[in-house]
Design a protein that fits this description.
By secondary structure, the protein is an alpha/beta fold. It has twelve helices and eleven strands.
């Protein structure tokens, strides 16, 4: 039996000290005054509790440091909640190329530990956060898109581990009747994103007077979703409680190559258009992600509220105002940047 009463929902958020999880916790506590959140986060290099200074004393918020792979800890927490929203993961494709084992441990085995606990304690709703990267890559210049019906074809250790976690969630639904939903979203950007992903790396490099590294020829395409829009999509999916459903979530309706996204950032920051450098391409670099997010619009009435230009402007302003948040992260992760980036001539 869950100890939480039904009037007060208690939600276990995993990975709530990372980028999307932090934004989600702020969104949720602001939107649902009666709900409580337990944030289970291992505080890896990507987790940062400075994201939560403004809620640290909120009686509705509890932080627990620990891993989703720790079955005893997970069991003790799941016992006291009625919902789980699962963000915790290793998330950076480039790091998955350097160290794949960690991705399997956290993203696959950690998810399975959570699923087992969810069953044992009759969790009312397990929402799993996943990625459009599980679908593999689309051809450049094609007019095809990913949708909920696209078959899985992951091509990086990261996307393969996320695909495995999606399969496990569905298997627990089919086999044991776990009430689950899944969202496969596109590339998020916004406040509190670790400065290793393209958008925050570009913004912080420009603020430091450095060039923005572009892999290969920069023609690769991603769909870009402002993180607050992602949070409102998750909210609707959770509220709707249509178990067994998957929704693809995206932010754009037309392709924008990476080089154009970086050019927009340079322009918004009044930086010279040539403050970028082409570097050695990522191994197995997926060419194009484009998502057809019409199902969540038709079924739940969701659509993104923020355009790419507005979202980038808000994000730039946040990084400009929060140098004390990102600067120490860049210094502490100097070794990763040095290992990951090589001049194009070494290809
Ligand atoms: P992030 O890397 O910023 O944060 C991940 C968080 O998980 C960190 O706080 C980290 O400490 C925590 N964590 C890692 N291993 C853990 C473990 N074993 N136990 C407990 N906590 C652990 O990631 P993000 O960008 O916020 O992504 C959140 C989720 O959204 C992930 O599942 C990711 O696959 C998915 N997603 C992200 C994007 C994106 O663009 N960022 C796009 C699609 C899907
Ligand atoms: P990233 O932000 O790492 O997200 P993902 O790999 O999950 O899509 O990368 C987004 C795109 O930007 C991807 O095509 C790789 C490219 N990229 C660069 O060109 N330079 C960079 O320094 C980074 C981090 C990414």
């Amino acid at each position: 039996m869950n100890s939480a009463s039904t009037s007060q929902r208690t939600i276990l958020v995993t990975g709530g000290s990372g980028f999307i999880g932090s934004n989600f916790i702020h969104y949720w506590l602001k939107t649902y005054q009666d709900d409580a959140i337990i944030n289970l986060d291992a505080l890896t290099y990507a987790g940062n509790n400075e994201n939560h200074v403004q809620i640290a004393d909120d009686p509705r918020y509890t932080f627990v440091k620990g891993s989703i792979c720790d079955a005893a800890l997970v069991d003790s927490l799941v016992k006291s909640v009625n919902r789980i929203v699962h963000f915790a993961a290793e998330t950076h494709v480039d790091r998955s190329i350097l160290e794949p084992a960690l991705f399997l441990e956290t993203n696959v085995l950690g998810t399975q530990v959570l699923l087992d606990a969810a069953l044992r304690h009759d969790i009312q709703h397990f929402h799993h956060i996943s990625t459009d990267e599980v679908f593999g890559t689309l051809a450049l210049e094609a007019d095809t898109q990913f949708s909920e019906d696209t078959h899985y074809d992951p091509r990086s250790p990261y996307s393969a581990s996320k695909a495995a976690s999606d399969h496990l969630v569905r298997a627990y639904g089919e086999t044991y009747g776990l009430p689950y939903t899944i969202t496969n979203c596109s590339n998020n950007y916004g406040e509190y994103q670790f400065p290793e992903k393209l958008v925050p790396l570009a913004i912080t490099n420009i603020l430091e007077g450095k060039k923005v590294p572009i892999y290969g020829n920069g023609k690769q395409v991603r769909d870009w979703l402002y993180v607050q829009d992602h949070c409102s999509a998750i909210d609707l999916v959770i509220k709707n409680k249509k178990f067994g459903e998957t929704y693809v979530v995206g932010g754009l309706s037309q392709d924008i190559p990476n080089i154009d996204v970086v050019s927009m950032i340079l322009e918004l920051m009044n930086a010279p258009s040539d403050q970028l450098e082409f570097v050695k391409d990522r191994a197995g670099h997926d060419e194009r992600y484009s998502v057809n997010w019409s199902k969540i619009t038709t079924n739940l009435g969701w659509k993104p509220a923020v355009s790419l230009k507005e979202g980038l402007q808000k994000t730039i302003e946040w990084y400009e105002a929060n140098e004390s948040w990102w600067k120490p992260l860049k210094i502490a992760n100097k070794d990763f940047y040095e290992k990951n980036y090589q001049p194009i001539s070494q290809e």
